[in-house]
Request: fold
Amino acid sequence: MNREPATAVAPVLEIDDLHVAFATPAGRVQAVRGVSLTLAPGETLAVVGESGSGKSVTARAVLGLLGPSGVVESGSVRFRGTPLTGASERQLRRVRGNEIAMVFQDPMTALDPTVPVGRQVSEPLRIHRGISRRAADAAAVRLLESVGIENAAERRRQFPHQFSGGQRQRICIATALACDPAILIADEPTTALDVVVQAQVLDLLAGLRGSASTSVIFITHDLGVVASIADRVAVMYAGRIVEIGTTTEIFLNPQHPYTWGLLASLPTGTADRLHEIPGTPPDMLRPPPGDAFAARNPDARQIDLEVQPPLIEVSPTHAAATWLLAEGAPEAPVPPEIAARHARFRERADRTTIGPTPGPTTDRTVEP
Reply:
């Protein structure tokens, strides 16, 4: 199985076997290597991985924002059945900010420092909806108010530097939501924010969960922030999806050693020191022939060094790319950090719900 588990609802976005590379002075960097994803209407999908795993490149490839050195070498992206790969710049401009909008990591560089924020929020409406300046300005005030900007009617005339970092990110979200897009891509939107403001932005994005009109792709390196906002989680490593499932499945029944490492690395408030995943990511100029995580996996076998594992089904909604799931594979001991976390997660899950209910699992589930 090389694809993610199928979904019952017709997807609003389909990414099929996407390969993206960048030309650099050192050679060709293979940033994305065979990613396949679907996004259902109203769904929030979190894409998680270390820096350089290919998650942001995948998102930028959707909108044709790879820059002059990036190229989609193969694969396809379809929005509501219409191909985006190979589309002209004119066709993509009709989609960007209208049907698919993106919130970037650094709001200070995403916003034009020379233009009042109200005009920046209203601009997509004037471009894509063709409404008057007065109507667009009124809509901008409503949008700014909806994301928690107080005194929006007055503050819309102010410039980005007159707002805090969290407020600037809220303004970026308001701009992205201006045209009521079918898809909102949030690329590391909380990375540069303190924990209090981060929580506020996450609450804002969580409010979109289950919306009939907007699906969300939430990109982050921090698995800990996705539990309350995502329906599904895709874990990326070295340009590939190594595990995908419902949020509950990823947190309570992870199958890939890299996912184990990410979960074990989450701070608990009780441990003396944080767990670290040993080793470093592979050189994407020369990716290894087998499992890219093998060099960092203490349970790796010879096949991991030689053959790249496909996504193997765990349940109808859950799959992982690890030879540990292959028939006849030896049992790998669950790291003690994961066992301890499972006990806490399950105890917490008895009181609350983490994401949707998981599908049935195989007999190779990881138990605490």
Q: What stands out?
A: The mean pLDDT is 88. The first helix runs from residue 55 to 63. The longest strand covers residues 27-39.
